[in-house]
Amino acid sequence: MKITDLELEEYGIYHHASWQPSQTSLNVVMGENESGKTTMLRFIRDMLFGYGRGKWQGRKGNMGFVRSDGKFYRVHRDEKEKWFENENHVKVEEELPAIWWHGLNRYMYEKIFAVGLEDLQGASFLANDTVRSRFFMLQGGDKLANVKAKIQDSKGKLFSASTQGKRKINQLMADLEEANKTLDSLSTQEKEFSDLQHKQEELKKKVSELEEKLEKDKEQNKRLEQRLGAWDYYQRAVDVKRQLDLSEQVTMFPANGKEQWNQLMNRMNVLHDQKESLQAKLDEYKPVKKEQVIPWLGAVGELEKLYVDLGQWRQTIADAEALEQEKENWRIDYVNLGYALPFWDHPLKIDEPCANVDWEEGRRLSKSLGVRNNELHFWEQREPEVEDISEELKKAGSVQSESDWQGIETMASSLENILHDQSDIQKEMEKLNGEEDKKFTPWFWLSLVSLICAGGGMAAFYTARAGTMAAYGAGGALVVAVIFYLVHNHVVHEKGRNLEKLTEQNRQLEEKRKAIEEKFPGQAPKTVEELQAFHNLMQEKRSDFYKDQAQRQAIAWKKETVRKQQEQHKKWEEEGKLLKTKKEEAEKSWTHWLEKSQLPKVGAENLSALQEQWQKIYSAEGKGKILDLRLEQVDARLDMFSRRAASVISATGLNYPVNPDSIAAIYEENQKRSMEWEALQEKNKQHGAYEKEMEKLDDRWASCQREMDTLLNLVHAKNAEEFAEKVNAHEHHDQIRKDWERIRQDLRMYAGSEEEFQSLWHSLETGQYDDWMEEHKKLTKQVEEESSQLAEMQRSQGAVENEIFRLAGDDSITKALQNKEKIQAEIHASLQEWLTLMYTEEVMNRAQAIYESGKQPEIVEKANEFLKEMTMGKYSLTISENGKDIEIEDDMHRLKSEKIWSSGTGDQVYLAIRLAMALSFGSQIEPLPIVLDDIFVRFDEKRQRETLRFLMDLGKTQQIFLFTCHERTMHIAEEVGYEKGTGEFIHLSQGEIEQVGQ
Asked: Does the pLDDT of residue 149 top 80, yes or no?
């Protein structure tokens, strides 16, 4: 098939972009980083084989193609929806590989048809069963590979070599190890039994000691209570002393005060008797509230709910114990996981959580480091050549410039002009010297005539023959005579002046000539007769100058070329420094990312393996977090049950532990007290009627009290008691004094002696009663605490005795031994099955080796032809039967193993093999487009041209896409395409597709 057009409707940075690639010439696509080149590569794969899992969101596009039979089809993919249709628009929803390409999948396509730089790293892909079954065996060969894959899958389900494997045999081995652990733990029951007996003896001893201490504290508290009893006598003594003081204060009362008081007292006595009679009835039965019968009345509802949930509570306790055991097993496995990971190789620490790793950043840094290495590699290959300058050129003297030569010619011309000028001056002087000197000129005679006229005019003026006009005329004639004379004088001396002038000019010219002669390089002419020889000499020098100039120009051009080469080399070195700095920065960023992510120090090329190992740690840690979460949930449920139970037990005031048994006991007690309350309700009703009658008597008593308050105000008594006390104290002063003496006597008898009485009386007066009461409270609290502690220890003693009885009748060891024997039998049967599959796999391997040898020679022969074309016949190819050993033979018949190949030669060899396999598949099944992604990174310019010539020829029959991010590769491709008269050239830029030349 060949792709006719691509429609990228919504795909990454492409929006409604389209491209009609060539079907009969090589398609060269150039795009810089972030230009959409990788996106275009992924789009072609996605159209052929579908989107990857979870990578369909927001992607939509279609692709047209024509098959070998000339029929046109178009495949559509709109997020999750997919179909393809023929030229009659008949839709089919099956995938293209399943119905046409003999089960070719995306992995195999990318291994052979989609070749990138990382794929040109060796021939290990030839040893891959999936690839070999499709390309070396082709039709029918994949059935052997499928059977072999099923056998391997069955083996994989039984056993995995990984320590973290979850296969059947691995699981059975883990179960066997767990059974051994169980047996080891059960073997400790005897020691546990002995420890429990020892603990029982210690509890008995502690209970005895606590009982003895409790009796002592109770006796001390009892003695303290007897001492506190003296306080009642002291209070009575204080009251009598107060009455005695009142009796001494009262001197008189109102006249009828006592009668009024007595009347009130009689009425109040009657009321008092009635109240006492009624009170006797009230006292016969004290009303009981439901809270008194059931103190925890407010918690009854919660008690009912908690009693219903007791089953869940007990199950939650069992779940918590099971999870704790599972968490302990996880801790052991997690710590030992570090030994199974090559990059870690040390036990993991549980208290150091697995750091959150930004793998996208890691891949970016790894890719950046790879790009920096590639850039350095390209930089080394692009070192510009700098030619050496010969010693003669280095020794070349100073150069006479064009301006210098023009200066010489100017001086020569000036000398020639000066000599000519001197010659002309000499001739002029000789001519002047040959002329006759003039003594009289016409101007002399004119001057003389004018002078005579002036004399005549003056004579006429003085003789009065004429007027003033004669004087003026004489003056004018005189002036004219002077002028004429001056002209005469000028003409007479003109020859001399000219000779002087010419002589001066000749002198000046001679000085100029001598000045130029001093500066002139060479022999300067001194006369006109020497000019001809001077002209010949100058002509010869002119010829030598231009010859020297030509030679100098050539030397200058050579030096300029070397200078430019040196500048280019300097730029190359500066570029190298920059690239090395960028590489160092990339390495520092990579190392910093590893440290920041708390990862071991590994190379960037091991990123995938590092992520895989980290993922195992992360998964194991996640399992622990899940267990922690489950434990938190179980603990939360237990805490909820405990809080509810504690709330109920606290409401009851009973000293019960917080457990399901206590709630069950409280629930039974609540049922019993509820029945008690039903019997007490009727008595409470009768008591209520008595209380209402008592309220009426209290109202009448209050009326009397108001009258009494009136009397109190008369005697300035604060209250009724003070009024009565004052009256009684005044009337019974003697009796009060006797009571005071009697009470003191009773206290003496209570104390036992006068000394103890004085001490006791002083203690009562100074307030030591509060200290005694505080000590009494502390002893009472201490007795309660000791009683509670004694009850708790007695319960623990009972629990130990129960555990001793349980261990005496436990048969867990017998069951554990039976379970171990069962696991061992299952392991034996599974191993038999695994060995059978391994033997069958070996038989299939041998059958596959025989079957696949049919197509390998044809592919190797084709690859050999391709390699010769790409290397201009320099190398030929040989491959071992298993496809693992590859050698090349040069034109001198010398064999070279792949270990000593250059990187560019290796890339050409592996490219030839992949192209041969791709074309072999096309001849047997159907041709598919070949995609080459930046395969020229390690090629020098010569190799690029040779390989591009080969690809240009191959692209005329086989559709090939060549992607590159290097502009130089694009230029070379255009030059080769122009040479071959073929090729289509595309430029990608930020989601835009542009055909070069359009």
From this structure: no
Mean pLDDT, residues 766-780 taken together: 74
> Which element (helix H / strand E) includes 91?
strand 91-92
Band the pLDDT of 138: cuts 50, 70, 90: very low
Q: Supply the DSSP symbol for 900.
A: G
Asked whether residue 514 falls in the same domain as residue 614, the answer is no
Task: Place 998 in a pLDDT band, splitting at 50, 70 and 90.
Answer: very low
- 605 and 709 in a common domain: yes
> DSSP readout, 705-758?
HHHHHHHHHHTT-SSHHHHHHHHHHHHTHHHHHHHHHHHHHHHHHHHSSHHHHH
Q: Is-above-0.90 flag for pTM? A: no
Q: Is residue 990 included in any domain, yes or no?
A: no
Residue at which a domain ends, from 465, 488, 522: 522
Residues 516 and 608 in one domain: no
Amino acid at 219: E
Q: How many CB atoms lie within 10 A of CB 672?
A: 9
Pairing of strands 930-933, 895-897: unpaired
Indicate whether 517 and 418 sit together in one domain: yes
pLDDT given for residue 122 in this prediction: 54
620 in the same domain as 512: no
As for how many domains the chain has, the answer is: 2
Same domain? 515 vs 606:
no
CA atoms within 13 A on the CB side of 500: 5
Q: Is 98 exposed, middle or buried (0-12, 13-18, 19+ CB in 10 A)?
A: exposed
pLDDT average, residue stretch 508-513? 82
Comparing 790 with 750, the larger pLDDT belongs to 790
Those residues with Cβ within 8 angstroms of residue 674's Cβ, 6 or more apart along the chain or in another chain: 294
**Token digits of residue 922:** 């096309």
Residues constituting the chain: 998
What sections of 597-606 are H helices per DSSP? none
The model's pLDDT over 181-238, given as tens digits with 9 standing for 90+, comes to: 776 666 666 566 667 777 778 878 888 888 888 888 877 777 676 667 766 777 777 7
Q: Do 934 and 2 contact (CB within 8 A), yes or no?
A: no
What does the mean pLDDT of the chain come to?
A: 77
CB 237 within 8 A of CB 744: yes
C-alpha gyration radius of the chain = 65
Domain presence at residue 7: no
The alpha-helical segments, DSSP class H, found in 164-256 are 168-186, 189-249
For the chain, the straight-line distance linking the first and the last C-alpha, in angstroms and rounded, comes to 27
pLDDT digits (tens, 9 = 90+) for 379-411: 888 888 877 766 555 554 445 566 777 777 788
More confident residue, 410 or 846: 410
Q: Residue 652's closest CA among 631, 640, 667, 634? A: 667
How is the beta sheet containing 886-890 ordered, strand by strand? 875-879, 886-890, 895-897
What is the largest distance, in Å, between two alpha-carbon atoms of the chain? Answer: 204
- Give the domain-ending residue among 471, 504, 522: 522
**Cβ-based burial of 265 (10 A; exposed 0-12, middle 13-18, buried ≥19):** middle
pLDDT at 465 over 80: no
DSSP-derived secondary structure for 118-169: GGTT-SGGGG-HHHHIIIII-TTHHHHHHHHHHHHHHHHHH--SSTT--SHH
- Given pLDDT bands bounded at 50, 70 and 90, which one contains residue 64? very high
Domain with 697, as residue range(s), is 254-320+601-714
> For residue 289, is it within any domain?
yes
Token pair 């700098």: residue: 386
For 620, residues 6+ apart whose C-beta sits below 8 A from its C-beta are: 164, 330, 333, 334, 337
- Do 411 and 509 sit in the same domain of this protein? yes
Inside any domain, residue 529: no
Alpha-carbon torsion 152, 155, 157, 163, what sign?
A: negative
Which pLDDT band holds residue 102 (cuts at 50, 70, 90)? low
SS3 103: coil
d(CA 611, CA 590): 14
